[in-house]
Each structure stands twice: as structure tokens, then as C-alpha cells.
């Protein structure tokens, strides 16, 4: 495969409603898309970094910068071009490994090249990754709201739409009361879990244990991302299973967290771990150690959403993920909208991602483009 160059494209997409987590409120999504152009096909990658370094150290401007200064020059070097010509997308992680961190940029780069490669071969992401399902159950992530009645109205709306699992974002001051209210209103059969996005410390253990009575599927990332031992200790002090998100940045950190008893469940986000191929490694490790996994979300466009559907169709993804319909976040997507039917979303089967940006829609949301010639 011969890479001709990469297009960096920034899009700005308004959200259907503000999305508030313990680290901030988003009203629009500033996204970096990559288009890999080869002799045979074009492939798309989506960088999941947010506008500010609040979820992780990465932010969108930093990912564009590291791509321009370091990652793309490496891929365009004689060594990089030879490795990609020989091995395709599987060569990307090794080539970029000397550069520390910046996994979201690396993931987007690998995704774009993998998409181009698979489109040229007529093979789907799902088949390539090892998917076994043709549709996946769809959960929804519900932000922090100003009042419990408002939250109940929003959750009721999502349940009416058919979402099979509800995840409530929590933070100190917005945890036990809203969880209790959702359980009371919608009953014990609703699959329910919470996500703290690192908002607590181990000193909150007794308070967090009050969530145990609500039969939650899991509590996600209650403590700081580097506090692996804290999560292991918290796991001894509460019955609700601990799930890690921010802490798991590679298969290596996943293995350590599992071994130390810091998590009973893992939320896999390909952008956070450096790509879909590393995400598959974490999946394989989790299957081998009997740790259930599910696929998280980063408010992706249809491009990233399609790839996440392929990943979520792997056999170890035994819990419903955060891959919801496009309409959860965007009135208009840059691809054909990803839609939910009976609480499930179909896994794309076409070549590569199986979805392609629609030029008019892409242009409508584009704020800048830049071509880097190889
Ligand atoms: Mg999370």
C-alpha cells in the first residue's frame, strides 16, 4: 500500500443538548478527522480528543500539533513508507511507539490507514477485528442535570426510545439521590450504571458504598486515573463492581489493573488506548482473564461510531456499551445517521468502516482543512 498523503480536517458539530460530566459541560464537539489517501483507496480516522485536556491529557489542538510535527513526518519518512508499503496499518503502532503518549492521535492515524487498506481489499472492519455479532445492544450515557425531575424526564425519554442500558454521570453532590430516584421511578429491571470520571477519592469509600443497594451493573472510574491501588482498595469496600475507563491506556495497564484487583470490568475506548488493534488486544486479554468489557464513547461522529460498532461486536463485549444512535448527540451527522432499532444498532458490513462521510454534510461542519503530502 502506497500512502500519498493525509488530510487533517477540523469539524465543529453542535450537540443536541449540553452534555455535563464531572469534568465539564460540552455544547459542541470540535473534532479532528484524518483522511488517508493511498493509490487504491481513501480511509477515515477520527481523533476522539476533546477541546480541553479534562478527560485525559490529550486535547484536539495538541493532537493536530503532534501529528504535524512528529507522527506524520515519521510515517512519511523512507522507513515509515517502507513499513506501511510492506505491512499496512499494523506497522503504524510500532513506527509511532518512540513518541510518548498522544494515543488519540496515534489511534486516529492507524484507523485511517486501516480503513483505506480494508476498503482496497473489500473487507470490513468488523470482519478484520473478529466480530461475531451483526448488531449490538445500545446503551446511553446521561449527563448531570440541574434537578432530579429533569433527569427523570430525560431518562424516561431514552427508555421510550428503546435504549437497553442507562449510564448516569455522577459527581460529589449528584450521586446517591439521582440514582435512587431513577431506580424508584423506572424499577429494578432497568440496566443501570454510573460514571464518576475520576471525581472521588478513597476517602469517599463509605459514601460510594451507599450505591450498593441500587443493584448497579458497575461504577466507572470513581478515582483518579493513576490511582490503581486506590481502586483495588475501594473494590474491597463496596459490592458494586469497579470498571476502569481513564486508567486503562494500553493492554499493559489493563493487565496490571486486573492483576491488582483494581477492576472487575473494563470500558474499552480505542482512542484512549492508541487504536483499534490495541483495543482488540485488551479484549483478548479480558476474555482470557474472564473480565467483561464494553465499548465506551467519546461523542463520535458516524465515522468513529461505525468503527466502535465493529469492535463492540467482538465476543468479549458482553455488556451493553455507550454506542448510541447519532441522534443522541447530533441532529445531523457527517455520515448517514447511525440508527437504533429495537434497542440495537446494526454493525456495518461494507468495505472498511462501512460508512463514508457525505461531502456536503462534511463541508457544512468543516472549519479547516490541511493537506500533508507524502
Ligand atoms: Mg467513562
**Helix content range:** 25-40%
Helices, by number, come to: 14
Shape: globular
CATH class of the largest domain: Alpha Beta
Give the total of beta strands.
13
The computed structural class is alpha/beta
**Which sequence of SSEs, written as H and E, runs from N to C?**
EEEHHHHHEEHEHEHEHEHEHHEHEHE
What average pLDDT do the residues reach? 97
**CATH topology grouping of the largest domain:** TIM Barrel
CATH homologous superfamily name of the largest domain?
Enolase-like C-terminal domain
- What is the radius of gyration computed over CA atoms, rounded to a whole number of angstroms? 20 Å
CATH architecture of the largest domain: Alpha-Beta Barrel
Q: Report the end-to-end length measured between terminal Cα atoms.
A: 13 Å
Low-confidence stretches: none
Q: Numbering strands along the chain, what is their spatial order in the largest sheet?
A: 5-6-7-8-9-10-11
Beta-strand residue percentage:
15-25%
Main sheet overview: 7 strands, parallel
Number of domains: 2
The distinct bound ligands, ions and cofactors come out as:
magnesium ion
Write up this protein.
The chain is an alpha/beta fold. It has 2 domains: 136 residues, Enolase-like, N-terminal domain (Enolase-like, domain 1), CATH 3.30.390.10; 220 residues, Enolase-like C-terminal domain (TIM Barrel, Alpha-Beta Barrel). 37% of the residues lie in helices and 21% in strands. The strands form 3 sheets. The chain has a 7-stranded parallel sheet with strand order 5-6-7-8-9-10-11. It has a 4-stranded antiparallel sheet with strand order 3-2-1-13. The chain has a two-stranded antiparallel sheet with strand order 4-12. Helix 6 crosses helix 7 and helix 10 packs parallel to helix 12. The longest helix has 19 residues. The protein is globular and about 60 Å long. The protein starts with a strand and ends with a strand. The mean pLDDT is 97. Bound molecules: magnesium ion (MG).
